[in-house]
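A quick word before the example. In earlier lectures we treated sequence and structure as two separate objects. From today on, think of them as two lines of the same record. Here is ATP-dependent DNA helicase RecG written that way.
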Amino acid sequence: MTINVVAVSDADVAKALRLEEGHFVDLKATAVAPGKLTRSLAAFANADGGELFVGIAEGQAGQGHRWEGFANAEAANGHIQAFESVFPLGGDHRYEFLSAESQTGLILHIEIDKSASIKKAVDGKIYKRRGAQNLPVTTEEDIRNLELAKGVVSFESETIQYPIEYLTNSEAIITFLIDLIPSADPEPWLKKQLLVLGSLPTVAAVLLFSDEPQAALPKRSGVKIYRYRTTLAEGTRDTLDFDPITIEGCLYRQIYSAVAKVVEVVEASRAVNADGMSTINYPKEAIHEIVTNAVIHRDYSIADDIHVRIFDNRIEIESPGRLPAHITPENILDQRYSRNGAIVRYINKFPDAPNKDVGEGLNTAFGAMRALKLKNPQIEERESSVLVTIRHERLGSPESICLEYLRDNDTIANAKLRELTGITSENTAKEVFKRLMKMNAIERVPGLGGNKAAYQKGQNFATQLAAVSGTN
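And the structure line, produced from the sequence above:
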């Protein structure tokens, strides 16, 4: 397969020579042995992906990098052959040569995606990228943790010491078996589905069919809900509205109970409309789908609960474990991979299954947010968890945004309100100002008219702001 040669500008050359090695970038001279370079390729694939530039040499202290590429494409054949043993050409990973009129030689640029499986360098060892280092993964425990993180193996299939009669006589399995076709008795069915191996149930079986899985899996099978009266980045004990609520039970009940409690807390918040104060109109579908996604796709090998933090301007849903296999925040809506295949499959067989459209949950959540003209959820992959953030009050109520902006600023103009809220029409923004002026929350700034018109705090500003913040 031919590797394309891409001509780059002098500006791009300058950018390339300013690159610094880090978690997503590695720079190597052509003199470095090809086999050694496969460590970088494998390390990127086993972590979060990255880019390798072969032909950029480190300069002397303070002199920057140097472009020292291959004389021609054939001169890179030894490197290509070594790289193909790890990542064949034509796969999901991209190879190209970079050329520039002002520079001599070709840079080999390789983009490596996060892999679905564990990759080894040509020395047979496993590496993982951490910062600017390719760290060897050598111990059985570290290899096992990498397998769990990638979803190569799943903790759901592990067996645990737990009396099988706690499953066969549970309310959860009775609810499940009502609609099962063909009908079956609990114990033979569990064994047939390999959810009980010998006399021991799997983690998936306990999570799905025990009425109290937390007894067997403490600190790794519940949902905790917090309410913080703040818009700050972090909640504190002082801003905590009530003691955290813990939702337990089988996964099916957990999902519906957690969603109901989150919706209840969110709707207790207040927003401004033309008639005064009202509850927030928030997409319940988004809450349901994101909570469901967290419960069924989290990494149950990590001893931590799912945390739902409700702030004045957002909801954060943090689930233990990184995204599995090749899934990233960028491709999560388009790609499919299930860490917990048994959980996903069997919870879909419950009456009124919480994951009706398997594989479409987050897409449904995004659609529900857009239907209410709210920003898309934000998905962030952290060191050992995934955080999904959805905005509510600030984005759902332009009036609230206006008042909270004026709390910290002297005036607000039409353009600023449209910038903050995503409103595209000047007339729509004017209607927001009219509603707030009707309540005497704001007033026009004297002497400013036309396209210079601006608004400032009105006589009832403090009262309406306190109502929005829920402090009155």
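Notice the following. The mean pLDDT is 87. We will return to this example when we discuss secondary structure assignment.
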